[in-house]
Amino acid sequence: MTGSCLDVDTSVLHAVRLLGSGETQQVAHRCGINSLMTEESLLDSAAHGWVALSEFAGSRRWSLTSRGRAEGERRLAAELESLGARATVSDVHARFVLLNARFLDAVTRWQMRPLPGAPMAINDHTDVRWDDRVIDSLGTLGRSLTVLDAELAAAVARFGGYAARYDDALTRVTRGESRWVDGLGIDSCHVVWMQLHEDLLATLGLDRGEGH
Q: Among residues 77, 111, 135, which one ends one of the domains?
């Protein structure tokens, strides 16, 4: 979240939401704050009941509680009002929702390739023309995302960077690194897209679901 106007605690809390859950280093990377400050902020948030720490097989992961989700939305709403940017973000969100349906369709076509008698067949990526059409769709969506991200960043600086991250992932895809379409644990096209979606929902205080 380069250029974020959020304070450290809010940035860290928001990063946890965007990640879903994450280790301290992952949260720090997502919000652009050093690991020590991030850990201190997470411990403070845990004391307030806003985040919870789970440990399994040597991994320590932070996740939001329902109280933390509400607190994060309250802080983002205050930021939005202070910037007078609610109308802009709402307009971009409405246009993003239309693109989202096309994006989800493209990812589905990347993961599945219907065959005679097997409409739910997994895409084995042997049909180069099929995959190329999906990549073309992802490229078209990326160009639309660039426009939306520029409008968002002009109104709320912390939104800047989503389009560049998406483009970086798509570049890797065109070089043959197929996992950068929908891979988890990396800034794949799907991960970046879903994080922007979650960012818009969090900022506007909306629940993910029909029409959002």
A: 77
